Write the structure tokens for this entry.
Amino acid sequence: MHGHGTYIPQNKALAWFERRLPVLGLLKSSFVDYPTPRNLNYWWTFGGILTVVLMVQIVTGVVLVMHYTPSSADAFDSVEHIMRNVNYGWLLRYIHANGASMFFLAVYVHIFRGLYYGSYKDPREVLWILGVILFLLMMATAFMGYVLPWGQMSFWAATVITNLFSALPFVGEPIVTWLWGGYSVDEPTLKRFFSLHYLLPFVILGVAMLHIWALHVVGQNNPAGIDVKSNKDTVAFTPYATIKDSFALICFFILFAYLVFYLPNYLGHSDNYIPANPLQTPAHIVPEWYFLPFYAILRAIPSKLGGVIAMFASIVVLVFVPWLDTSKVRSARYRPLYKQFFWILLVVCIGLGYLGAKPAEGGYIIAARILTAYYFLHFLVILPLLGFIEKPKPLPSSIAESVLKGKESDPMPAKG
Amino acid sequence: MATTAGTTRRDFLYIATGAAGAVGVAAAAWPLIHQMNPDASVLALASTDVDLTPIAEGQIITVKWRGKPVFVSHRSKKEIDEARAVPLNQLPDPQPDQSRVKEGKDQWLVVVGVCTHLGCVPLGHQGDFDGWFCPCHGSHYDTSGRIRRGPAPLNLEVPPYAFVSDTSIRIG
């Protein structure tokens, strides 16, 4: 979002406007002329996908609110009213509910793309940290949205998650009472969650703009992980990135549409079609799939406060990744050891997700402890040490050279 | 004015203005924060009376108090003996069974039915200690509602209650 001010529209009225508020020049320099590395592969399309999914969530959310009633007596029925009576209500709600899952699917790909290609390294630390903040905001928003239908899973998810704060010494209980507005999850809790669930997406939108701004200041990373050196290394955002992003978006939306139209409840829990009952906990409560790895970490630690600290630490540790990774080489393509540890980390995270869905007993607990220990080991020990013991492969002299000559074996081959 | 003079009247004015502003912001923020605490209608929630006569020995009933479940357990002789036979040093949150019931009313155990781990409702007559078992994260409680194994840090809370008569209690 820089370099504007030189653009003068042909149309006289637009030129008049542009002299007073140069917004067209800003858009043109940011999304048309903006130089993107010519070697970007499809893993780089998820930023655009995330932007569109956020828009879908905001638009469907705003119209769902026109029919939803945020009260403990009527919330469940109003959701059923949306499903049965409101014109296309079933479609809007299924898009919104599955949209949350698609949002997390895309953000996890986006995060692991960043980890693989070292997109968090100098000079992109602030860009990366804004991303971690966006991830936390998404988690808060998704959690509060899940509470709104006021089914059994909504109620008990709200109870368990707010109770996490009761682990804090001394201030824990007053904080939980304050969050609830009472002595249990009830009417006041639902109302404030509804208010915040409406607010936070716009906060996400704001932070996402900062994220894109920071991206456009430092420029995009790329699969080779080396800096842009000349015009030969880049292509214009439009049409190259625009078309590539659009194609990826369509493919992503085919999956999205498949879930909405053929498996709309596949990622949900049938217990949430039972109205909330404060006197009975469902026999097997599990969070939505996108929280499962963190849930596994929470349950792996045999102490209440310890489990809560470990769970929050597993996200906060991401903030420090730019400084925990001591290697100067960004892309895993040229880091033979890191590349292997990256895939182990990915398998460990999926394993934690699997264990989060299993009952907290016997071998599952032991496995969750091992994987939790490995998760922290990766960030706190392996990542710092690798920079000292690993011998990176020689880097290409430029992005153009890496595209035109260096076709190395790579699990994420460049298609640009 | 000499730049080496250290603090000046202007520095004082900056700090005083900043301090007054901070106090003003805090005062303005407090109503916005405090409105989320329990309101008058929640605080005024009445106490709950429970008639004990229909509860058979060995039976646990659940009543609602302050929006939360409360378990009233009519314990058998065996359950009381089990609870009292445990050495206190084996308990994560040591508390004798006697201190968790009213004197002379050993058969009546009244506890808040909220797991002290993350707030799920434990299931009665289950788990490895014949008391309660929490299905969420696997905490086991004994016949005195004390935590024996699992992630919960504390015993099930005993709410404030009193015997109104021999067959009736008032919780709250």
